[in-house]
Amino acid sequence: MAKTAICYGRQTIDLSDIDAVARSLEGMLTQGPLVESFEAGIAGYTGAKYAVVCSNGTAALHLAMKAAGVGEGDRAVTSPITFLASANAALYAGARPDFADIEADGMNIDPESVAEKAAKDRSIKAVVPVHFAGIPCRMEEIREAALRHGLTVIEDACHALGAEWTDSGGKVRKVGSCSHSDMTVFSFHPVKSITTGEGGAITTNDPALHERLRALRSHGVVKDPSRLSKSEGPWYYEMKELGFNYRLPDMNCALGISQLEKLDRFVERRAGIAALYDRLLSKYQFVKAPSVPDGTRSAWHLYPARIPFSELGVERKDLFRLMSEIGIGLQVHYIPVHTQPYYRAMGFSPGDFPRALRFYAEEVSLPLYPLLSDEEAGAVAEGLLSSLACLSAQPRRPVAV
Fold this sequence. Notes:
401 residues, alpha/beta, Aspartate Aminotransferase, domain 2, Aspartate Aminotransferase, domain 1, seven-stranded mixed sheet, 14 strands, 38% helix
């Protein structure tokens, strides 16, 4: 039994992070030199040519949609199993979101479903594959479909900073390199791979997209003399299009720079916890561990276990209640976007994407963050199996860490 409360996710902050933020308070608090330093660090880590940081992951998705020219009369396809922002970003840009079902044997968007949908609907201008839980999508197939149908590819990698995949030529690609996409979007929310408190970023290899993203982030304002229609002096700027205040302050970037130095260690620890869960839960057929395809490295943002609640005769809310009583927090990722009242009013029906609906009915996210100890992970596994046994009267054996 857990002795202290174990939440499903939390930030990992140490004294070096605190010192970095404290030092930043002596300089510029908003748009200072640490913004470009953090951007350079993200680009360097992912292998992309450019990075643009912004206020949060949702803002990053919105900026990417706008920079890609997705707007009124267009559609953007994403996965139903994602946070609302992946779809809402199309609405913010004046377009209409649509969905393609997830893979039959996975958790990510199905490239064949994307291709079929794009072939039938010429208004689809963009696809937003979501690297769910930190597991990379099948990007080569998605890019192939996108090229065939003229789609912009915007990777939603808010779960996946630190993830990798190996392409058909044997080359290792980091998520965010944009090797098979136009842009990649990240989030630095406290439960993500690294945190800036709140924050986001977009990577790209396209210089034109890079410049447009930078302008859109700050009211559509351009200051580069080479891009101005005239110049009245060093103070002069021009608003070329309607943009937003999506800037990320220097003090947040200071935390991001410090966190980025620890990213690989964080991902390694997350992978270790996931492997421990795999081992502790492996003897119990009614708990299905998440599967990571060969040739990929997950960032392990989540550990999405699947439990056949209907077969066991168990209510998921009862499992949550029992786990909460012993101090362990669970979560569900996600309620399929197309089932939300707003999207149902747009004409979507719950049964439109049956694989997503089935996944949602079984998914439970177990606690996973670098500060979680092996003992705590063992308590989570023990509590999960004990609670399921209590609720379903299924036979079980003791769990040994």
